[in-house]
Backbone:
């Protein structure tokens, strides 16, 4: 997958022949892995520069940082770490999966 943006909960992954459960697990794995990579990057950045790696500073550590489109009414806080948003998105994915089980 070239981008975390093409997994649940942002959009349905374009993978044919997969069950809903497989798509959920794949998406959750992608988000967890992305979050873990960012947590390591944030920790190293903090150790090297003595400050937090926030969204506004992400381009100092990542060549082309992108954020998923969450609609016109949602704004990203540039003072938060990217890993915070991935934690929130993972939580949203789990809530959606619980809704499907009702």
Residues:
């Amino acid at each position: 997958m070239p981008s975390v943006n093409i997994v649940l909960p942002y959009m349905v992954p374009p993978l044919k022949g997969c069950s809903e459960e497989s798509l959920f697990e794949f998406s959750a794995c992608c988000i967890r892995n992305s979050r873990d990579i960012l947590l390591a990057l944030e920790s190293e950045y903090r150790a090297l520069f003595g400050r937090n790696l926030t969204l506004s500073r992400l381009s100092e550590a990542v060549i082309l940082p992108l954020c998923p489109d969450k609609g016109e009414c949602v704004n990203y806080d540039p003072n938060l770490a990217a890993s915070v948003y991935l934690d929130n998105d993972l939580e949203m994915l789990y809530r959606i999966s619980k809704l499907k089980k009702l």
Summary: Residues 11 and 33 are 18 Å apart (CA to CA). The chain is about 50% helix and 0% strand. The chain has a mean pLDDT of 90.
